[in-house]
Structure formats: C-alpha cells, structure tokens
C-alpha cells in the first residue's frame, strides 16, 4: 500500500483477539476502530452453539477446525458443507460424534460477523470525503486469519458497496509489515510521532 502518499488506504485486520479497522494516509492513521471481536470469539460462539443445541462439549481446537473447514460468513445454500464433530456428551459423559453443516456454523458466528461489519461501516462514516473517494476507487484491503473465513470478503463488499481485496498471505501480513517497518525506521518514527501527538 502507498501509505506514505496523500492517498486514502483502508485496511481491515481480523486477527485472533481483535479486529482492527483503519484509514491510513501520509504514513499516519486518519481514523480507526478496534473491537475485541475476532477469530477467538467466533470459536467460543461455535463451542456455545454446539453445547446448547446438541449437549456436546468440544474444545477450542475443534471449534477452530470447524470454523476454518466449513465456516461461512454469508448464506450459501447451494454449497452446503458438513463436518463430523467429536466431543463429550454432557448427559452421558461419553464420547460422541455428530454431523454439523455450514449453515449452522454461519448462524453460530453471525453475531461476531455483524459486529465486524458495523465496525467497518463506522470507520467509513468517519472518513474525510477526499480519502473516502480514494477508498471508493481503490477498495479495501482485508487481512488476518479472519480474512480466510469463506465469503468474508463477499459479505463485506455487499454490506459496504466497495471492492475487497484479500492480501496474498493474510496470516503473515502483520509480521511481514512489522519487519518492513523496522527496515524503514525513519517512516516508523513519523508514524509513532503522529500517534503520540494524537494521544496528547
């Protein structure tokens, strides 16, 4: 992204613990919002859903596998997928296996998806008109593990009416970006100084 130029860039990072949404221009953050709703909360929602509906207890790792295998941000009745889930029956206390479909998982994580969509809309509403025009032309960049959730880009695009581009390697983008920032220490200093001034 040409983040040092006078051009508006919008980035959505859906990580494990938080979702960060920011408008970046001239090596600074123009406006941003962070919420503690991301991959981990989706996993917890899946655990709770399966516990309530099927009286089956599953672990966090199983919930993550379910999410990454058949999780879907948008309704897709033409491509319904299923997965076998193994856990402990809370009534009998013994292992149990059952089948769950992708529509159930979509409903289980719908509250978290809605929260992310609303956060993106809030940041767009706060964006200065000149930068909003740039974003309308250039679109939004989506990164983080949550970017890999099926149809997440499609849903966001439909909700905000803008093109969404997923980074080439969403899981490593932040680490790669941090490394590049350290290689360009003068630019990093500018960003830190601007943030410090905003905090005063």
Automatic annotation (TrEMBL):
Swiss-Prot/TrEMBL keywords: ATP-binding, Cell shape, Cytoplasm, Nucleotide-binding
Keyword Membrane attached: no
InterPro entries: ATPase_NBD, MreB, MreB_MamK-like
Any coiled-coil regions, as ranges: none
Key word Nucleotide-binding present: yes
Main subcellular location: cytoplasm
GO annotations of cellular component type: cytoplasm
Compartments, as annotated in UniProt: Cytoplasm
One Pfam match: MreB_Mbl
GO biological process terms held by the UniProt record: cell morphogenesis; regulation of cell shape
Gene Ontology terms, MF aspect: ATP binding
TM segment ranges: none
Family (UniProt): Belongs to the FtsA/MreB family.
Protein name: Rod shape-determining protein
């Amino acid at each position: 992204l040409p983040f040092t130029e006078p051009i508006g860039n919008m980035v959505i990072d859906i990580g494990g613990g938080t979702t960060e949404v920011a408008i970046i221009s001239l090596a600074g953050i123009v406006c941003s919002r962070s919420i503690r709703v991301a991959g981990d909360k989706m996993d917890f929602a899946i655990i709770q859903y399966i516990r309530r509906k099927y009286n089956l207890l599953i672990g966090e790792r199983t919930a993550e596998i379910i999410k990454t295998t058949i999780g879907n941000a948008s309704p897709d009745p033409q491509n319904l997928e299923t997965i076998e889930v193994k856990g402990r029956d809370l009534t009998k206390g013994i292992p149990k296996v059952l089948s769950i479909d992708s529509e159930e998982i979509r409903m289980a994580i719908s509250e978290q998806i809605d929260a992310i969509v609303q956060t993106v809309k809030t940041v767009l509403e706060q964006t200065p008109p000149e930068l909003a025009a740039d974003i309308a032309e250039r679109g939004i960049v989506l990164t983080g593990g949550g970017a890999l959730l099926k149809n997440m880009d499609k849903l966001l695009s439909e909700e905000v009416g803008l093109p969404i581009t997923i980074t080439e390697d969403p899981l490593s983008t932040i680490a790669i970006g941090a490394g590049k920032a350290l290689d360009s220490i003068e630019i990093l200093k500018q960003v830190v100084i601007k943030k410090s001034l905003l905090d005063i």
